[in-house]
Fold this sequence. Notes:
Elements: H1 2-14, H2 25-37, H3 41-71, H4 76-93, H5 98-124, H6 132-156, H7 161-166, H8 177-191
Helix pairs in contact: 2-3, 3-4, 5-6, 6-8
Amino acid sequence: MFLIYAGLIFTGALMHNEFDADISRTALLNGISIKTLGNTANLFLSILVSLACFTTAVGIVTGTADFMKFKFGDSQKAYTITAIIGCVLGVVMGQFDVHYIIAVAVPALMFIYPITIILILLNVLPEKYASPLVFKAVITTTILFSIPDFLGSIGYGDAISSVKELIPLSAFSMGWVLPALVVFVMANLLRK
């Protein structure tokens, strides 16, 4: 998945002048694939999008089901019920137009992705750099600095524009990165 997304980012950076600035995400992805792969682009694009969606869906469903299993005392029944509900909701959501799905998903992802990225990075680090204190401090900071991006994605961008101007990288919806890094360093220094 990393190679696919990195390739898309790289290709998008190389071809940024070949498309209008107001092109939709779907049309941009389709246009890039046709320009790079020719007539077989739709087949490859369909396979890649299917794999990306499938792996994401499996991760979300199993992660949520596993969390519910833990919350209900290691109950296999809770796991199964949560997995079934997650799959049914996924199938129902899949019946909508791509633009609608993106409109519904973007606000949630603007809040969830930064936290997920930080959790993954902290779990990869050796325990001496990612103590429980560091985890709590960095996750709390990430949550707080993800709120402006979340609010901007649900239509309150104008109301919080003065706050977003104060946060570095918030113009790129990455206002959580530098604060999380600073708190990570400070929490590790305080712990020592």
